């Protein structure tokens, strides 16, 4: 029997996501910049600026995740104030990313990036709906 066309891709996606956790922030940033370069035709200057920004944010995120995991492993539960602070920080990071991209990319690239993000959100929503439907069986 042959596997369905979508099955292998799903497995590869899981593998890629798991492997990204093992990369350093610099390695993750480099891969992200290369993907963006292919999609948006970034200039060398844009690549350098975006890589530096993503590396810095990746290091901050890694530090925050290590702190979160340490608290979780210690059995500490998030208080409502902690949860609010975490969500607030995440939104601040998204705002900073959007502002940086507006400053770095031209109008065409920015529109393309927004389209890519919208498409990605749609794929995630569809996958979540399919997962919920499959888990009810």
TrEMBL record:
Bias (Basic and acidic residues) ranges: 1-19
Residue ranges, annotated region (Disordered): 1-27, 117-137
Domain of life: Bacteria
Protein name, entry field: DUF4890 domain-containing protein
Organism: Flavobacterium album
């Amino acid at each position: 029997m042959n596997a369905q066309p979508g099955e292998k891709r799903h497995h590869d996606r899981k593998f890629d996501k798991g492997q990204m956790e093992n990369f350093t922030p610099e390695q993750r940033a480099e891969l992200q910049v290369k993907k963006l370069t292919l999609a948006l035709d970034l200039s060398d200057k844009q690549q350098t600026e975006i890589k530096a920004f993503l590396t810095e944010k990746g290091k901050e995120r890694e530090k925050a995740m290590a702190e979160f995991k340490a608290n979780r492993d210690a059995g500490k539960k998030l208080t409502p104030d902690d949860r609010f602070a975490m969500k607030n920080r995440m939104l601040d990071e998204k705002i900073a990313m959007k502002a940086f991209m507006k400053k770095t990319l031209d109008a065409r690239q920015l529109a393309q990036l927004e389209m890519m993000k919208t498409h990605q959100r749609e794929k995630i929503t569809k996958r979540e709906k399919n997962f919920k439907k499959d888990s009810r069986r």
